Every structure is written in structure tokens, then in C-alpha cells.
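Quick start: what a row looks like.
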Amino acid sequence: MKKILKEWMLPIAMLAGMLSYLVYYGIPALHPAGPVLSRIIGVVQPLLIFLMLFLSFSKIRPRDIRLHRWHLWLLLIQGGLFCLGGAAILFSVPQVVTAGDARTRILIECAMICFICPTATASAVVTGKLKGDMAGITTYIILINLLTSVLVPLVIPMINPSDTRTFTEAFSLIVAKIFPLLIFPCLAAWLVRYLLPRVHRRIQKYPDLAFHLWAVALTLAICVTTRALVHSDLSFTDILLMALISLTCCAFQFWMGRKIGRWKAHKNQEHATEITAGQALGQKNTVFAIWMGLTFMTPVTAVVGGFYSIWHNLWNSWELRKAARAEETEKTEVAS
């Protein structure tokens, strides 16, 4: 049972999140508790993200945070594809610039969100389980959040004339949303490392704690995603197209990240860099994607973040299960 739970923890967490909301939605007597549950999730989710990042940073020394060549290529891909989507709206299909409900515009915006969305904080947890470079992906998380904070305020006013925010206002809004959950866990982890070494050593005795916290965070994320889909007013065709857009973007980014990782890896580090770059480009902060859709884009595009959450977590589940099976086979061969 323990082995089954370990291998299937993520699919179980996703199923639990979906069923939790469907049960709540199907029992009207539970609806009065909705606002309270929503506030609880609003507090618990950031706390789980903080703890996951804290545990990830506690495994990394400050001198391990450094720039790699593949970082620059991934930044170029994410930023370039986001700008290309903006150019498509602005120049190729000018008739939809002012038509907020036009399907073409909405689908292009969905792709833009999927491309510029920063790497998920939980990606460090998955990368560690897959024997990738945790320091490398943590560095990229910081870099892509910086790029997003600059590019989004520059591009959005050009494709969305109704957004009257200045660059400074939009930049401050994004920074306030994402950086407290990056900087504070980092500082806390490194303070504990150098000022409380005993506590730091005790934390290292529980290497899978971050993974279990992620399973809980994933359950809540899928619950929120299910709520967004249930209450969406989109037609079946629109929902299907958004699902296909998010699936295509997800598959492309995992594939491209791995390809660049292999290409730009140092000697004898091909596998680790391939895994790390794939997770860095493919695994997204879908909570931010949903918020970005509601805040800067046509609001219905927020749904694409929910779909992306499903696809990248299905991919992660398959990767983790494959890695677990490979490790088990290796142990069996060594024992024999």
C-alpha cells in the first residue's frame, strides 16, 4: 500500500481535489461553508508554497545559485513566444484588438499566458525527486519571475488598450504577487542554515517532506481549478479549444526544455540538465496563470491555467512513476 501511494500520490491528489469540489457542489447544504473554505484555501495555499520553497532552499547553498547557458535560452523562448503572441494580436489580427470576446484573441491570449507564466515553485521538488539540478531550477525560478515582471507590463498595454495601468503600477502589482513567496523563504532557509545549524540538520532528515506538502497543495489547486471550470460560462467548443491550446503549449515546452538541456549540458551532466531544463520550461505556476488571466487578459482566459495544471501534473506523475520504477530495477540488479 505504501508503495502504491508513493507511485500514485499525484494522480490521487488530483482526483481528491476534483472530487472534493464536486461533492461540495452537489450537496447544497454545504454551500454556506463556501466563503469560509475559500478563505482557508487562500491562507493555506501560500503557506504551503512558502514551506515547499523553504525546504528546497534549505538544500541549496547560496554559492550554488549561478547562471547557466540553458537559462538564457529558456528565457529567450518564454519571452520571445509571449512577445510573438502580442505581435500576432497587434499586427496580424488587428480586428480583434478591441473585440474582447473574439475567439481568435482569446486563444492567442491563452497561449501567451502558457508561455510567459513563471516556473512553478514546486518544480524544485519534482526536479529533486528526478535527480535533476535543484540549484539550477531555483535560479531559473528567480530569473523567469524577473522577466515576467518586466515583459507583462510592457506588452499588455499595447494589446489591451482598456488596461490603463502604467508600467510602474503593473510591475509593482506583479512583484507584490510573486516575490514575497520567493524572497522570504530563501532568506529564512539561509538564515536557518547559518544561524541554526542544528535545526537545519534536523530538516534534512525529512527529504520527502516537501513532496508530501506538494501533494496537499496539488489537491487544493485542482479543487480551485474544478470550481473555475464548473462555474465557467464558456461554450463546449471554447473549453475544448482552450484545453487543446494548453496541452499543446505544455507538451511543446517540456519537449523544448529537455532538448535545450541536452544541447547546453556540461559533460557528464546531460541527464540532470535535461531533466532540470524540461521542468523549468514545462512546469508552471498555474495559480499565477489564473491570476494573470483575470487581471491583465480577457478574464475567461483564466481557465487555461486550470487546464495547464492538469496536463503538467499528469506529466509529472508519469515521470515520477517512471523514475521510481527505474530506481527499483536498479536496486534489484545491484542486490542480485
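That is the whole record. The radius of gyration is 20 Å. Residues 303-335 form the longest helix (33 residues).
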